[in-house]
Amino acid sequence: MSAEAADPGAPLRRRSRPGIDLRRLGRVALRGPVSRDRLPDAISHVAEAHRAHHPDADLSILRRAYVLAESSHRGQMRKSGEPYITHPLAVTLILAELGAETTTLTASLLHDTVEDTEVTLDQVREQFGDEVCFLVDGVTKLEKVDYGAAAEPETFRKMLVATGNDVRVMSIKLADRLHNMRTLGVMRPEKQARIAKVTRDVLIPLAERLGVQALKTELEDLVFAILHPEEYAGTRALIAAAKGPDDLLETIAGQVTQTLREAGISAEVLIRPRHFVSVHRVRRKRGELRGTDFGRLLVLVGEDADCYAVLGELHTCFTPVISEFKDFVAAPKFNLYQSLHTAVVGPEGAVAEVLIRTHRMHKVAEAGVVALGNPYAQDPAAAPQAEPSDERVDPTRPGWLSRLLDWQESATDPDTFWTTLRDDLAQDREITVFRTDGGTLGLPAGASCVDAAYAQYGDRAHTAIGARVNGRLATLSTVLSDGDTVQPLLAQDTASGPSPDWLDHARTPAARIAITGWLSDHPDEAKPAPETVGGTGPGTRDEPAASPERHAPGAAAPARCRSGHRATGVVVEDPDAPVRLAGCCTPVPPDELTGFVVRGGAVTVHRRECPAVAAMREIGRAPVGARWADGEDRESDAGCRVTLVAESFGRPRLLADLTEAIATADAAIVAATVEPPSEQRVRHTYTLQLPDAAGLPRLMRAMRDVAGVYDVSRARLPAPTG
Predict the structure, then answer these.
(1) Which of 38, 353, 463, 569 is the most exposed place for a label (fewest CB within 10 A)?
(2) Whole-prediction pTM value?
(3) What pLDDT is recorded for position 535?
């Protein structure tokens, strides 16, 4: 594209294309109609770029689209003073040079006609067909919402929905933003900054996700110039002042070319200059720049196997910098990017970074999904040129985009949508983890078992109590690595919900939105136990933080507060006070009881020997008399909740056997935690719901009978401090 003057990192070409004078094109466009058989001069550059990628393309539809766009926009001017038709022309040229197919270019020429002229969608459909109409409509919907701060969430929600239906809509939008950024200088500085920030936060990450590096790098430089003018000027001066920055790279490039020629490997070796932001990042990382820091070597070959052959020769004939090696051929990035990255030491100790890829990989690396054509076209003649079976079936719906489409429908709150979108786009790497049933989950780097649980089970993950990672018990907060095998563990109590603390570990929008939604729908409830199997961190909401009634880490949450003293099977002195059973000691009959009034007037009832009782007395809180109801006061079907601690020696299947013993005793697991093993010993804490307190002794015996378990006792958690 015509960005070399502004972008020192634009890919080198074997032949250069003259610069495009949009003012001249505007004048040409105003000369009036041309004959049916001749392509208008104004789009000759578009036709030339398009034919370079698609030699057999039918240009007649482009001619018709241009004629409609030019006549519709005639008389309209841009703020820069150019005829408006220069904008759709420039956007279309950007896409043509990226290799977009004819339908995309046709829609690009028309992308502003429905929004800004008298042309209707029906007219577009009648003259150009349903597909072009769909693309124009998608872009039009994105333009109808202002980019003000309050409108941003809904704007990008519309963008995401449109992209999900056809990613070419986003391609046109990105090219549209690039041209607008190139001509942003006519606007007020504050508006420039606002548009640049939106471009930085959302559009540049989306360009990265779509693999359109050619657009991404130029957008980065344009944003850099607006938001950080002093650093941009300094970087520009460094590049301009560098005397022969390519000299050392040219020397190394010549040596690499000679090495590959002698090895009989057909390859093209190019010097690829870095763009401004890339140079700035290298400078911040390394301090003083070396001559080879202003560019990298690009080696292009014919086949995938040749990539590894080149790598072998380079590592044999040069001193490699092993820490710089990355294999994105065997494991492509989430945006389809493939290359081998390495670095070698050349003359005078100069280190040159080297990118090795096939010509096809290079095309995809530069243009991303734009270079992959129209995935919806069903042309039998193209069958012999179909992608290999290991390629993505539909390049317009990579995994990350499918996930965004799934969760955006659940994000009813625009602020939640906006926050999670930006957080997700900030993730620059994706990992793949394996399920125990043989399936896989694609997650962003840094994802935890919480994310895996929601990715696999959806809302059922609200009952998660932990996970197995590579066969070992792990906390839900455990961060997953690429290639891990993960098995989320769910509790039997389907009524339980997530802990607010899970939000600290959730990285995916799906998990965060599901957790936030549950917590919003259940303001008076929280998961009644720590958030993980294997963790000891707090996982509940309880009394206000200022109250000493807070429960210690690892404690279960109190029974849900319900009106009436009979609800818990406990009678207290104040017959009108709501009663709850303390989660720190989970009293059951026939435990002796002591109660305390907490905020809101509720009475929380503890076992008399609970450490929290002593703590409350020390701060002067008066106890409230409490006893178990009997006779007509007792609710026969109320059940009870109890917290038990099982201490055992570590062994395989211990958790499964304990869970089975609990189920056999007719108890339901409300929540559980397993502390990290110490000296081959493991401490399990379970909060259980029993149909009747009379079954507690039988339950404890059943747990003690599990092999490896040497003690089971009622929880006696330390009193909170502070």
Answers:
(1) 38
(2) 0.59
(3) 36
Tokens linked to 604: 């929380």
397 pLDDT above the threshold of 60: no
> Does 85 have pLDDT greater than 80?
yes
How many angstroms separate the CA atoms of 658 and 664, rounded? 10
Give the amino acid at 277.
Answer: V
710 backbone φψ class: left, alpha, beta (φ>0; ψ -120 to 50): alpha
Q: Which of 68, 59, 21 is nearest to 38 (CA)?
A: 59
Nearest to 532 by CA among 585, 590, 473, 481: 473
Contact 414, 154 (CB under 8 A): yes
Mean pLDDT of 533-538: 35
The H or E element that residue 93 is part of is helix 86-98
Query: What string of DSSP letters covers 169-229?
Result: HHHHHHHHHHHHHHTGGGS-HHHHHHHHHHIIIIIHHHHHHTT-HHHHHHHHHHHHHHH-H
Q: Which of 4, 116, 137, 413 is catalytic?
A: 116
Tokens (6 digits) for 422: 């930006």
Alpha helices in 493-558 (DSSP H): 509-521
Which are the contacts of 349, defined by CB distance < 8 A and separation ≥ 6?
Answer: none
Distance between CA atoms of 579 and 594, rounded to whole angstroms? 12
User: What is the phi/psi pair of residue 207, to 5°?
Assistant: -60, -40
Q: How far apart are CA 79 and CA 11, in angstroms?
A: 31
pLDDT tens, residue by residue, 421-478: 666 666 656 777 888 888 888 788 889 999 999 989 988 898 888 888 888 878 888 8
d(CA 534, CA 487): 14
Q: What is the 3-state secondary structure (H, E, C) of 359-420?
A: HHHHHHHHHHHHHHCCCCCCCHHHHHHCCCCCCCCCCCCCHHHHHHHHHHCCCCCHHHHHHH
Instruction: Give catalytic status of residue 116 as yes or no.
Output: yes
Task: Report the distance separating Cα 129 and Cα 136, nearest Å.
Answer: 11
Whether 626 contacts 572, CB under 8 Å? yes
Cα–Cα distance measured from residue 624 to residue 37, given in angstroms and rounded to the nearest whole number: 97
Distance from C-alpha of 198 to C-alpha of 204, rounded to nearest angstrom? 9
Catalytic pick from 4, 82, 115, 327? 115
Cβ neighbours of 101 (radius 10 Å)? 20
Closest by CA to 582, choosing from 542, 522, 546, is 542
552 close to 576: Cβ distance less than 8 angstroms: no
Lowest mean pLDDT among 107-116, 210-219, 700-709: 700-709
Q: Which of 696, 200, 677 is nearest to 686 (CA)?
A: 696
485-490 and 430-435 beta bridge pairing? parallel
Q: What residues contact 517, with CB distance under 8 A and at least 6 apart?
A: 410
Render 423-471 in DSSP notation, one character per residue.
HHHH---EEEEEETTS-EEEEETT-BHHHHHHHHHGGGGGGEEEEEETT
Tell me the mean pLDDT in the region 177-198: 90
Per-residue buried b or exposed e for 404-423, using 16+ beta carbons within 10 Å of the residue's own CB: beebbebbeebebbbbbbee
Contact 556, 641 (CB under 8 A): yes
DSSP-derived secondary structure for 559-592:
PPPBSSTTTTTEEESSTTS-EEE-TTT---TT--
Across 315-335, average pLDDT: 85
SS3 167: coil
> In this predicted structure, what is the pLDDT of residue 266?
94
Q: Which two tokens stand for residue 415?
A: 């602020």
Kindly report, residue by residue over 676-714, the tens digit of the pLDDT.
776 667 888 888 888 887 788 888 888 888 887 878 888
Which residues is 607 bridged to in the sheet? 593
CA–CA–CA angle 416, 421, 427 (5° rounding): 135
Q: With a cut of 70, say whether residue 13 has pLDDT above it.
A: no
Q: What is the 3-state secondary structure (H, E, C) of 620-636?
A: CCCCECEEECCHHHCCC
